[in-house]
Amino acid sequence: MDGDRQTRLLNLPDGRRLAVSVFGDATGRPVFYQHGFPGSRLEAALVAEEAARLGVRLIAIDRPGYGRSDVAPGRRFADWAADLSAAASELGIGRFALLGVSGGALFTLAVAAHLKERVSALGLVCGLAPVVVPELALALHLPARLCFGLMRFCPRLARPFFRSVVSPLLAARPAWTLGLLAPVMPAADRAILRRPDVRERLVASIAEAFRRGGDGVVQDLELLAGPLDFSLLSIRVPVMIWHGGDDRTVPVAHGRWYAAQLPTAVLEEIPGEGHFSLPVRRGGHILEALRAMMEQADARA
């Protein structure tokens, strides 16, 4: 499914625009998909067919500076919650569920923390947890530790380096992002990336992430490397966490940490699944569970 043909630009109160693509059932239950890092709204195409089958309206938005969304200078996690709230209102959506994948996890949780009355259910898939927690940073593979560490401890050096050197390289060769992870990939991830449809969709999403340059990616890196501006303990919506037992990109220690920190969280560790194989091979299972959580929330309302 080509998300680019479905893209709509939403106008925000401050004059910026957000790029939105809808996948799955256009009249189904609304779920806002929070893409990874780096990624874009096109990433949601990986589970589009399952969303259509299950009656889920999967709404994917480029975070500011990614894809076709305008840059928001100095943005924080709270600003993303405000942006998503405005987008939902513009689309005529009152209550909705959230699905955060990989580096989109903390942005998803920020929305839940700030929009308590509008979020009915929340799912995290191979979610990156705060790397300011030492054991979570150490669990990552070396290149990721170096990137987050450089941004956290030397931001004045890191910002121009990632904006002027790393981002142009990855924009020109988006497949390199996957190549950088290849040495640590488990068998499940290597197998799923041999599928042309999966690889093409992932590379297209990464390429779209750098459409406007690297500002959005660099902003995300700085936010993910730093302290949170919201409390995880304030999140009371039902939370389901799925994490692959063989994930080497974001190890399962991150999912276990979330399960211990979030008051309502339930963790499902899936043996044999990696970082990329989990959302692709288990996408139907994940969306079906999230839909059931939404139905239960509606019944309680």
TrEMBL record:
Pfam families: Abhydrolase_1. The chain crosses the membrane at residues 96-115, 121-142. Residues 30-278 form the AB hydrolase-1 domain. Signal peptide: none annotated. Keywords: Membrane, Transmembrane, Transmembrane helix. This is Pimeloyl-ACP methyl ester carboxylesterase. It comes from Geothermobacter ehrlichii. The lineage of its organism: Bacteria, Pseudomonadati, Thermodesulfobacteriota, Desulfuromonadia, Desulfuromonadales.
